Amino acid sequence: MTATRLHIMRVNIKHSGKTHSIEVDPSKPATTFKDAIYQATGVPTDRMKVMIKGVLKDDADLSNLGLKPDQNITVVGTAGPLPSAPTQQITFLEDMDQDQIALAEGNPAGLVNLGQTCYLNSTLQALKTIPQLNVALDGYSTTAGTPESKVTNSLKNLFSGLNQTADAVPPFAVLSNLRILAPQFAETDNAGRYSQQDADEAWTQLLSALKLSLGQSGGNESIVDKMMGLELTSKIQCAEAPDEPPTTSKERQLKLQCNISINTNFLSSGILDSLNQQIEKTSPTLGRMAQYTSESRLSRLPQNLVVHMVRFYWRRDIQKKAKIMRKVKFPLQFDTIDLATEEVRSQIQPVNSAVKEILKERDDRAKIIKRNAGKATSDDATKEVDIRREERQKVEALVKEKGIDSETNVSGMYELYAMVTHKGASADSGHYIGWTRKENELPVASGQEEWYKFDDDKVSIVTADKILSMDGGGENSVAYILLYR
Questions:
Q1: Average pLDDT in the chain
Q2: For helices 147-162 and 131-138, what crossing angle results, to 10°?
Q3: Does residue 299 contact residue 250 with C-beta atoms inside 8 Å?
């Protein structure tokens, strides 16, 4: 008994985006191990594929597989009761198309288009990637009957449902409650069909409802402000009266704007253009209207940073929103330290440098894996867990030493995690698609990170090179809302 227990170890079972830690005894039959996986994941053993040096067979000898503590093991299969005998011919993995493979591997569920609702579907998929929002929704409970609370409750139920299925889900409740909250989303055309709407307007309305419903996290700060609220400190100086003392003010917002002009080539320059403005107001020293320069910088860096690419403007001649097609490059890793106030910049500089070094080292490890034909061993996975633990400890020590608010972005470095794109020439037409980053336990070569593409109910996988290619220049899909975290 004692000798047998010495073999027992814990391994990490990866299934449908979740990780389960279970015990395995290599001296026991493989079927015992599969039963333990079933208890954790709900995937019946008859439809379960355990990926250890290929697919684990029932008669395999676990003691010969070299299992190691905390090893990551992928399990493929759908949880639930056993299916009836197949009525169609079995399709093997190598014969599946991209969408079929996505379903077989437990990729996230898509959303059914309920009639010109791609603007909402793409927005919902991006919102769902915010970890703090999911936690807040899980704990949400109310008896209030306000339109905002109904939207929030329907979001909670939708996100919960998406986590429990691989089939596309129709967002009926969210859509109907949104149309009650903001009637413009119920507009129809001359034929009585629902009109296309703006994804950014849907994003704004949903966050407004969440902010009112989810309440406060402590003090006077709302939960939504805590997770994604940025603070701008503005300095206003009279250009015509240099001796006039400047005024400063602070403002909270939930997103940055990236203005796009004929000179805008990069995301950072478009954001700076929106932060640096020329305004006209009354000068107390000159006694008349005068020109002022307003320079705003980030005095609070949120954990989740939203950037709205301002691509639509109103054209009076055609009486509708037209689209700015200009190519504007955006990064997968976004360093915002130059957008911060001097005080914030000096505070986070050491952490910023440390995180850049960590990212460089990860890129070096990814190149080694790529040189090995992209194959990573279980030793690589085990080492990566230890390395990332040390990375976190290094950053946490610096944060504590510098006294930085740990509920903000402590380094100024962000990673692109979700995106909404628009295809077409007008906000009143075209097509919206959502894109979200896929989690990786091991470092991946730059540009090869995998992303999910949510084209309504169709879910597929692309690489980051595809994401970076959607920077504008035509009527094809172009980045519209960027979510960094």
A1: 88
A2: 110
A3: yes
One-letter identity of residue 61: D
Q: pLDDT tens, 194-240? A: 999 999 999 999 999 999 999 877 667 899 999 999 999 999 999 99
**248 pLDDT tier (thresholds 50, 70, 90):** very high
**DSSP letter (8 states) at residue 49:** E
> What are the residue boundaries of the structural domains of the chain, listed by start?
2-79
Distance, in Å, from the CA atom of 138 to the CA atom of 85, rounded to the nearest integer, reads 36
Residue at token pair 């990551």: 72
Kindly report the number of other CB atoms within 10 A of residue 279's CB atom.
Answer: 11
Question: Percent helix, strand, coil in the chain (nearest 5)?
Answer: 35, 25, 35
Active site residue 118: yes
Q: Which of the following is catalytic: 118, 238, 258, 308?
A: 118
Q: Is 431 tagged catalytic?
A: yes
Report how far residue 259's alpha carbon sits from residue 28's, in angstroms, rounded to the nearest whole number: 62
pTM: 0.77
Banded model confidence at residue 346, pLDDT cuts 50, 70, 90: very high
Distances (CA, A) of 61 to 9, 77, 256, 302: 16, 22, 56, 50
- Residue range 2-79 forms a domain whose CATH class is alpha beta
Q: What is the DSSP string of 184-232?
A: GGG-B-TTSPBPP--HHHHHHHHHHHHHHHH-EEETTEEHHHHHH-EEE
